[in-house]
Amino acid sequence: MDERISGFYVKAGHVRAGNGNDNSDTGTKCGRWNPTSEQVKVLTDLFTSGLRTPSTDQIQKISTQLSFYGKIESKNVFYWFQNHKARERQKRRKVSVDYDHQKDLIRHVDKISSPKHYVEFHNSYMHVAGEAHDEPERVIETLQLFPLNSFDDQESEKLRMHGDEFKEEGTTFSYTIGTEMDHPPLDLRLNFL
Amino acid sequence: MDERISGFYVKAGHVRAGNGNDNSDTGTKCGRWNPTSEQVKVLTDLFTSGLRTPSTDQIQKISTQLSFYGKIESKNVFYWFQNHKARERQKRRKVSVDYDHQKDLIRHVDKISSPKHYVEFHNSYMHVAGEAHDEPERVIETLQLFPLNSFDDQESEKLRMHGDEFKEEGTTFSYTIGTEMDHPPLDLRLNFL
DNA sequence: CCACTATGAATGAAAG
DNA sequence: CTTTCATTCATAGTGG
């Protein structure tokens, strides 16, 4: 059975707001963004310079700038950085395993059946303040594209202290009450509610 | 085999297979929640009807109902709504800058009324199967869709006024930010890299 | 034509 | 609520 070629992968929606004139690229179908070499270059440069998670503003600006080379949208830039960062980390993590035992390297599959106080391990990255370890985070100050605090965050691998447990019941959603009650008849429409 | 959702669920059956996360049988529910078509449908309906931030109690009930279609927990519902809502907004924000200034607008009004055109819920392939089936409708007895309100709901979240929340850089965007230059080409400054 | 790979896109989960 | 992280889905591109 090979359903990989079947036409079921219609993927509803995704109508590309534009009128289909987006292919400024190599005759790309409007399926998904296909970055041009220039765009990739710029993005890569930015990434190399240290930009990991651009803010909305920067995404907008970058997007605007890159539109010069071809069709591109903000979300493309957003996804690009997300993916790049993720993949890099993914690779690093794969090769990592760092020093064998970190003592508390548990990485157990949390059983989130009854979330109450499950600890969340986190990488063994341990952020050493003021210590440049292996991450080549070179921030080229020469690349001041925008006045905004460009690349500040970098990869701040801070220890994720747990502290927020999801509560199914209780007084977790204290803020929800009275926030928006624009659907009073909810119980009505949904009997079970 | 309890294929309640038997049929052509192309996507179903994914269930994190092949990872060998043999911690404890795995098969059941390790990994993250993978909503079924029905679950998504119901959640979407609720969202569409205006529910955005369900209370703890509502989450509980929804979760209970949805558990019929498959494994689900309260927190899944909670997260679902949070994400859905957040992304609705995020989309709105990132989709801008699209109707840029390099092209003339052919449709003037379309610009305002096609915000959510962009990224519809696509959950792909599920629609195909979920529609023409005869099994899925089993518990829907209680889930009767009401006559939607006259006013266009789901868009009543304009109460927010955030400073960072913004889009449309087109008009307010000025290249006079730096003393650098005034032309768009970004590569120029990045060329040194 | 089919398998594999790189990567764009999406989304569940969580942290802040 | 907002933003980020991790994992997965989907597809263009390429090799056999």
From TrEMBL, chains A, B:
SUPFAM superfamilies from the UniProt entry: Homeodomain-like
Keyword entries, A-Z: Developmental protein, DNA-binding, Homeobox, Nucleus, Transcription, Transcription regulation
GO cellular component: nucleus
Subcellular location: Nucleus
PROSITE patterns: HOMEOBOX_2
BP term (GO), one: plant organ development
Record feature DNA-binding region, as residue ranges: 28-92
Domain Homeobox: 26-91
Domain of life: Eukaryota
SMART domains: HOX
InterPro entries: HD, Homeodomain-like_sf, WUSCHEL-like
Major subcellular site: nucleus
Keyword Flavoprotein tagged: no
Molecular function terms from GO: DNA binding; DNA-binding transcription factor activity
PANTHER family reported in the protein's UniProt record: WUSCHEL-RELATED HOMEOBOX 1-RELATED (PTHR45940), WUSCHEL-RELATED HOMEOBOX 7 (PTHR45940:SF3)
Similarity comment: family membership: Belongs to the WUS homeobox family.
Protein name: Homeobox domain-containing protein
